[in-house]
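Predict structure. Chain length: 99.
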Amino acid sequence: MELGIFETLESILGLYSNVVIAWIGAIVADLVVNKPLKLSPSYIEFKRAYLYNINPVGFGAMAIASVVAIMAFVGFFGPFLQAYPPLSLLLLHSVYLQS
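Prediction complete.
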């Protein structure tokens, strides 16, 4: 406790949670937005031979949302968004996919 281990764990897990929420947000946005709009097949298709090693759209959406959420988490956008980084990244996912 005297070495600040709990504060270090809190900050590391806070950053990690923003990345995980960005990843889940990318998956949910694909299922909720792209499937009903017929931008992707109506069924979940998984053929390993036809998949890229890295999904550029999903990875790009997750990376951008993660960076913005981490910036909000450390207080770059002010105290209001510092309290709500997961909400800000999920809103960013919805804006990113609609454009």
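Summary: The radius of gyration is 16 Å.
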